[in-house]
Amino acid sequence: MIFTTRFAPSPTGPLHLGHAFSALLASDQARLSGGRFLLRIEDIDRSRSRDRWEAQIYDDLAWLGISWEMPVMRQSDNMHAYHSALKGLWARGLLYACHCNRRDILAAASAPQEGAPLTGPDGVIYPGTCRDLPRDPASEMPQDTALRLNLRAAATVLSGPLSYVETGRPGPPQTVTAGIADLQQSAGDVVVARRDMGTSYHLSVVVDDAAQQITDVVRGKDLSEATVIHVLLQHLLGLPVPRYHHHRLIRDEAGRRLAKRDDARAIATYREAGATPQDIRRMVGL
Ligand code: GLU
User: Fold this and answer.
1) Share of the chain above pLDDT 90, in %
2) How far is the CA of 95 from the centre of ligand 1 (A)?
3) How much distance in Å is there from the Cα of 5 to the middle of ligand 1?
4) Which residue minimizes the CA distance to atom 4 of ligand 1?
5) Distance from C-alpha of 81 to C-alpha of 75, rounded to nearest angstrom
6) Which tens digits make up the pLDDT trace of 96-120?
7) Domain boundaries, the chain
8) pTM of the prediction?
9) Are 7 and 37 in contact (CB under 8 A)?
10) Architecture of domain 79-241
11) Is the CB–ligand 1 distance for residue 9 below 6 Å?
12) Which CATH architecture has domain 1-77+251-286?
């Protein structure tokens, strides 16, 4: 299969040096391997996504010298695909409705017998409060509540451990393997549909990487904790598992990972100050 990768920014703020690094690395890899580079706008969070940030993303990427195949995929156009993936999981008893709010979760996870609450890629690991509430197997999937992935139920349908190929480390590609028990420890029953969105980052990214026929996901190391969740969802949904290249993170002088609110390192700020695309490449070590 032809090497196909993507850059998948959320239009919730300006692109910064970390995004530039990720996009340049992915598009360089596609070019060097004679492959494809796609763009996906991850705008499921309608409360934070803005058209002006989406327009700025296209402008900054073009200025950096990056070109992408058309059409651009936009997650807000794919809600039906997420819904049908969720319905399939629900019908197989792999999801449950969760009525807890943040405060409930923190209180249950901090109960004296639980020790210090453990955290995973989505924050405090869910203690499973709603997992065993009675549920009619034939019931309709609820629309007005969060849905969580039931890892205990998932364990019964998997035939072996989860694994993926990591290409972002020095040396030859490495196989990373984890069992459901590891996932229970590191992430717990993650939310796959948020009440306010009807989907989640984890579910959407997996459905869309398959729809865009992505063979190689290039993204920051900060997302590597989420990858085993994605591999599990790929297995449950019968989707292919791409290779993953988790790259180093671009940090500020104090060693902190750059964030969207970090306007000082926004590409737009450097552009206004007269930087060239070559300057940006140098700054991120490319
Ligand atoms: N939308 C995510 C972000 O902006 C990236 C998702 C991914 O590459 O898997 O951080």
Assistant:
1) 87
2) 24
3) 13
4) 9
5) 10
6) 999 999 999 998 888 877 778 889 9
7) 1-77+251-286, 79-241
8) 0.95
9) yes
10) 3-Layer(aba) Sandwich (3.40)
11) yes
12) 3-Layer(aba) Sandwich (3.40)
